[in-house]
Amino acid sequence: MKKTLTALTVSFMAFLCLSTLQAKIVEESFYIQSSDQHIFELLKSRPELTIDHIEKGGFELYGPKGLKEFLVTNNIPHFSMKIAAGAQKAKGQYPTPEEIEKELKGVVSKYPEIARMFSIGKSVKNRDLWVIKLSSNVNVNDERPEFKYIANMHGDEIVGREMMVRLVKDLAMNYGKDPQITNLLDRVQIYIMPSMNPDGAAASTRGNAKYVDLNRDFPDFSTSDNKDTTEGRQPETKAVMDWQKTRNFVLSANFHGGAEVVNYPWDTKADKFPQEAFIKELCLEYAGLTPYISTSTAFQNGITNGYAWYEVNGGMQDWSIYYRKDMQITIEVSNNKWPEYSRVDYYYQQNKAALLRFIERAIP
């Protein structure tokens, strides 16, 4: 095994020399079909690579151009994560970012007293980064607690975006009709960002238009990139960071795909989270109200500690908590990142009670 590791290391160094590498770049993606701990540790040791969604049979691996050559040279079992023909067909059923924008503008125009839509910035390709605020007296910033949902920061994880569109419509259409929804809009200022990465959604890529993984692009208190500054970051990351400076969110969640679990901090280090009992209570409650998550066979009770699952440096969840005192969890809503579009309503209905209850937890 020592000889094998030496060969792997040499080959990887050759890979480094042939590539112009930066951390967070996700130009190539593969599923590593191996439970070999030595291979895992080697790949994990490289800051240029991103490991994601670890499970018994393997894990996802993202990196710059040249990654495939490295894997082939070293006989590391893998297959491409490019969208297959069946998934391409499913992808074609989903709305474009422009169609999502049009739909949301239609909702807001119909309910102007409780819904407001505004852009917090632009993507690499100059698409607006839309946020919808829902609240009674929506144009007034008052003392009511502020809450937010953000989805689709990984462009190829699309279900969360669709769930947020449905939630916006539900909240707007049922204010004054549904007692729970009416209470939420009367007592909480709700902000929903359906897509943080519209360029990635349009291209079906994890990263933005510059192939950067936005969930590795935030300041991280546990690494050398620990200055809470937007300098050198992607426009989508900058927009969220600048926006949060103007707000006082007390509770948040962000949505991903590729697994079905509720994830709690820390993601970036093994240390116990200071408010672990409370954050686990929130996660257990969300999972418990979502039938297919609570019955997970991969995660006990449908929840996991982030770092215990896999380390994430530069993630939005930990940044929000550490630098903005915004209690945030991460919700993985579907094993399949691009399910048949007809399945989206299933995911929304399964999550709806949990989505509403989680907003309620922002009420003092």
TrEMBL record:
Protein keywords: Metal-binding, Zinc
Record Pfam families: Peptidase_M14 (PF00246)
InterPro entries: CARBOXYPEPT_ZN_1, CARBOXYPEPT_ZN_2, Peptidase_M14, Peptidase_M14_domain
Cytoplasm as UniProt keyword: no
GO terms, biological process: peptide metabolic process; protein processing
TM regions (residue ranges): none
Ranges of residues in domain Peptidase M14: 93-362
Domain of life of the native organism: Bacteria
Keyword Metal-binding: yes
Entry's Gene Ontology cellular component terms: extracellular space
Cited SMART domains: Zn_pept (SM00631)
Active-site residues from the entry: 332 (proton donor/acceptor)
Cofactor dependency: Zn(2+)
One Gene Ontology term of the molecular function aspect: zinc ion binding
Family to which this protein belongs: Belongs to the peptidase M14 family.
Name under which the protein is recorded: Peptidase M14 domain-containing protein
Source organism of the structure: Bacteriovorax stolpii (Bdellovibrio stolpii)
